Amino acid sequence: MKTDTPAIGVDVGSTNIKFGVVHRDGSLKEAFSAPTQARQGADLVMERIRDGIAGLIRRADAAPASLEIGRASCRERV
Predict the structure, then answer these.
(1) Could you give the CA distance from residue 22 to residue 25 in angstroms, rounded to a whole number?
(2) Greater pLDDT, 61 or 12
């Protein structure tokens, strides 16, 4: 693996899903977001995540070194 191979990051929030391609030095190559639309169901959210990742891979100069996914915390209302 080349040391300059970027990683794909995905942040799944309650309002938006953020996608980005990040180089090892922390510089952001590309980023965009899409509405989460969680109320329309988990299948739609997963489809948005899959499509966003696929789009980044198609546009990347090289296969990403890794894929990192974060999500919003799930809190129970009291």
Answers:
(1) 8
(2) 12
